[in-house]
Amino acid sequence: MRKKSKGISPLVAVIMLIAFTMIVAGILAGWATRFASEQRSLLEKCVRANILIKKGTYANGYLTLMLYNPGTVPLKGFQVQVTYEDQGPALPSTWNINGSVSANTYQSFTNNLTNTSVDYVEVRSIECQGAYDMLRSYDIPGIA
């Protein structure tokens, strides 16, 4: 003959379920608080961020961009995208600038550019996507 095995009592099961729920809620609350704080600080920084292309020149196969940061926070890391008039289905060429531009200062960056049929050049901050500017080819001396 087999003995009947008993499970845990309903009272213990409810207490364990409530404890498990409270542990999960505590973990999620901690993560949500940290996440919201990080997003708020990034948003506060990016509201005061801006970047302008003050000048672009092309000479000897190199494109030089003079960037100005009129914002109140320093920016580092930019993505430059060059779109060509005759690119067809090809994607625009893109490169990253690892340098930085302090608040209210100018900084010059140069990169190789083999195709001169440029339509426009865009510069966007990697950390603050709203800090963005564009320069048309007719504003770049040396581009035919």
Task: Based on the model shown, name its key terms.
single chain, 144 residues, alpha+beta, Immunoglobulin-like, four-stranded antiparallel beta sheet, three-stranded antiparallel beta sheet, 1 helix, 7 strands, 26% helix, elongated
What does this structure look like?
The chain is α+β, with helices and mostly antiparallel strands and 144 residues long. It has a domain at 52-139: Immunoglobulins (Immunoglobulin-like), CATH 2.60.40.10. Helices cover 26% and strands 39% of the residues. It is built from 1 helix and 7 strands. The strands form 2 sheets. It has a 4-stranded antiparallel beta sheet with strand order 4-3-6-7, with no helix packed on it. It has a 3-stranded antiparallel beta sheet with strand order 1-2-5, with no helix packed on it. The longest helix is centred in the N-terminal third of the chain and has 38 residues, at 10-47. It is elongated, with a radius of gyration of 28 Å.
Q: What class would the helix/strand composition place it in?
A: alpha+beta
Strand content: 35-45%
- Number of E strands: 7
The rounded Rg comes to 28 Å
Largest sheet descriptor: 4 strands, antiparallel
CATH superfamily of the domain at 52-139: Immunoglobulins
Number of helical stretches of at least 4 residues: 1
Mean pLDDT: 88
| CATH hierarchy: architecture of the domain at 52-139 | Sandwich
N-to-C CA distance: 98 Å
Silhouette = elongated
Kindly report the CATH topology of the domain at 52-139.
Answer: Immunoglobulin-like
**Percentage of helical residues?**
25-40%
Low-confidence stretches: none
Order of helices and strands: HEEEEEEE
Strand order, main sheet: write it out. 4-3-6-7
For this structure, what is the CATH class of the domain at 52-139? Mainly Beta
